[in-house]
């Protein structure tokens, strides 16, 4: 039996024995409760103070999203408290709303709820203020008019008349006011003592990680005697990967300017090593992959603490220095092995796209045995994704991996086949992968 499945069975039995509600326990890392009205304190998950962790009723996971939206403007979930009729929304329990509501996915983007960063930014704004003032002046005008009166004696009498004239003149004054706002965030590597034993601090999406020297390992290089990952033979070319899918796919397709997003959990280690081996075989190939993202689904975080979009264990590195690439990959492997079966594939994809905006090809090297936990984030992926499927072992292709290609207008790649344009198949149509067929439905592909 799959060791991850055994772990889930063990956890489920443990929860029953201890009398803990499994659904409630799964939300403890999110700060929400599974009841219709959340009474727990909000959990903040971003440098944006408006962002909180919201519990998604359909998955039991958390989503970091902006809460600067009034509850009255949101649509209530369907009667099952899981389904949403509004496009691009997901049913959540919001700590501020009385009922489960359909929350917009665009409020969970990293541009809206960014993680703690490592920069300080000065923002200068110039505001022009125009004021109009009415100025009133009063002027006294004196005129003298001679008047002649004829009687038996002629006399001339001057008559003086004073007239007040009021004039109103508008005066316009324009003033420019310059305001400078300093936005300060935390430099995760500013503290030189973060990494122990001469480890090198590297800023990352999750704050920082440490590249450890020699046989040191751990989140801060605190451990000595790094365990054998079983990939050194693949890396140095003395051993072939147990799964040649990655090498076969990359050899068949002449892709360039690639951001490669690689699952390094559990049995995926050999596939990850195969990517590195393929790239080092010739200098020409080194220029094809521009950026790597290695992900391990949370850095050994407890399953209950894994929040959709903020699970963590995501490591990025440019490919300029191949020695650094291998150190980052091994660091990701040492720091986490995946825990439960679902992985944070889409979170890692979004990070790779953000870090390599000019990359023209996005590939995801995915585990066929693991369904991504964060498929709800696919609406935020704006590029076609080429999904390379490892660990099929003559089993059926995981339909959820086809859905990644479907919803991003990407493609699916296996040991022997390349299936392009899966999004062009009409509803009710089928595709064949190996000896099995899959039908497209309104919600995605299903195995026939």
UniProtKB/TrEMBL annotation:
Disulfide bonds, paired cysteine numbers: 212-221
Cross-referenced InterPro entries: EGF, EGF-like_Ca-bd_dom
Signal peptide: 1-22
Keywords for the protein's UniProt record, in alphabetical order: Disulfide bond, EGF-like domain, Signal
Domain EGF-like positions: 185-222
Chain segments annotated as transmembrane: none
Example GO molecular function: calcium ion binding
Residue ranges the record marks as coiled coil: none
CDD domains per record: EGF_CA (cd00054)
PROSITE patterns (UniProt xref): EGF_1 (PS00022), EGF_3 (PS50026)
Record organism: Adineta ricciae
The keyword DNA damage is assigned to this record: no
Recorded superkingdom: Eukaryota
Protein name: EGF-like domain-containing protein
